[in-house]
Specification:
mainly alpha; globular; Endonuclease III, domain 1; Arc Repressor Mutant, subunit A; single chain
Amino acid sequence: MRTKEFQYIIWEHHKNNKRKNNFPWRKTRNPYHILISEIMLQQTQIPRVIPKYNEWLKAFPTLKALSRAPFSKVLSTWQGLGYNRRARFLKDTATIIHKKYNERVPRSPEELETLPGIGHYTARAVACFSYGICEPFLDTNIRRVYIHFFGGKKRNIPDAWVMRYVQKTQPSQHKREWYGALMDYGRDVLGGTKNNPNTKSASYTKQSPFRGSTRYIRAKIIDHALLRKNGTTPASIRNALLKDPYIKKGDVLTHASALIASLKKERLLREKNSRLYIYAR
């Protein structure tokens, strides 16, 4: 397929679906707002992110407000999005930007990538959607688009191959809108297809069911601790997990202590006088 033909297809879908895809983070270039949206969207679907994004900006309207907030409030506000480490990353990132960058989100992808929880994609998405500095980048929807249109019968396609097409087809103008349009096409047109193009990607992995998984147990431990301002104990946590119908008893006995230790290491939980609390700062 020729580049101009490909661009026409993507732009036409974008033009015809602008109203439907006018998400709150598409209406702003505020770097803090864009940063929040991109971290939330890393592992969570848009319908769940929209209300939480609005709630978050009411609770922490500025980067300074987030940097000064108690972590317990940050984590409590985050609940419902999953992958609680992202709340820790956001809190730490806000603190670093407040102290090191005078509350200004860095412009360059290279600087952004040094911040907690920000990888190659998120750094470039924030730079592009905030500042119009658009280096080629991939997310799951963009990857889906390029494999669909250019992958043919190939299998085990590396991201380096996909990135060559991203760079080759990137327009010289309106790059910020272009990347949003690519994401929308991948989600709207290809997201519900039975033959997911991303299964041809070398980086594709099928996500395991959430209930009963390690992620599920970690989330339940955090839920338990959030409800107890006076702290809890490992024994109390294990008892709560054993009552959960989706968690196998063997998994509790085998993994609970290690998961509590990992949550402490990640600064989600802290221990004081043999009791466990949500991390203070």
